[in-house]
Design brief:
With about 325 residues, the chain is mostly beta strands. About 0% of the residues lie in helices and about 75% in strands. The protein has a single domain, classed as Outer membrane protein transport protein (OMPP1/FadL/TodX) (Porin, Beta Barrel), CATH 2.40.160.60. It is built from 1 helix and 17 strands. It has a 17-stranded antiparallel sheet that branches. Strand 9 and strand 10 form a beta hairpin. It starts with a strand and ends with a strand.
Amino acid sequence: MQPTWGSFELEDETGSSNTTRFPLIGIGFPVQEARGVATFTLAGFMEQRWTGERSELIDLAGEQVLVEDRFETSGGTSIARLGWAQRVFRQRLAVGVSVGAYVGRLEQSFDRTLDSLSIGDRVRPFSELSEWRYSGYTLAAGISADPHDLIHLAAAVEWSGDITETPRPGTEGAANTYSVPLRLSGGGTVQLTPRFQLNGSIAWQDWSSATGFPDGVASHLKFTYGGGLEWRAIQQETRSVPLRFGYRRVVPPFRYHRYDPIETVWSAGVGFNIVELAAIRFGWIDLAAEYGTRDSHPLSERFWRGTVSLGISRF
């Protein structure tokens, strides 16, 4: 679960926002005979949840009438994936593959109301609702390695077909397709002491080559990176409490006007590994708080975000 509170500044306009989302649900089923794990995940992707309101005076039959407009968008796409991960080469190397589908729908509504004290019942409120559904597919492959007992490395590649946007019955417009560029990512963790470790990651994705979007919308920046540290403040035989601190620089795929967006996030968190044996967590709760900024001149945003993660394992 991930609640978010934010604010924005756009030239002489300001506003606020808040939302709660569930970005990821995952299930893994170990198959001991094959020394592998079957997985299912459902993750959010390109979600759109926002509401905008404005008030203005318009001329109606020679009379100034107060009009209130409300725009609301809710929905987006998610990725449902089925995968398999397999340990090989003396348990120091693992490979995994997954196949996924883009699923989801989007609803957009526009409501206009007029001041009834000025016009009475001569003009009625206006409402419009549009709905689309999304479909597509994606493939991914990854590898992880433990070249040393204190070093863990991982890399992944994700390829996607086009996302198709289809209007639902009652919605005007034709179907659209949008391409999703190849994504490469990698990272590593180094155990410096029994209680202290460092980690870092980097990802590359070129949205400027994507098709289907209006000209000038996609960002030309390609690299996202981050790093962090973890210190186990409490370490017992079957329980531990790690403290985590991190930083990441994210390049969102779309920009506002001419300037590519940059998002920077600082985070702090604490974990409660309720049951832990041989470095395997059987039950845990992770809590994190983030403060971030997102800039694409003249639009600037500030936000606070909390994350609650729960996990249960059983062999």
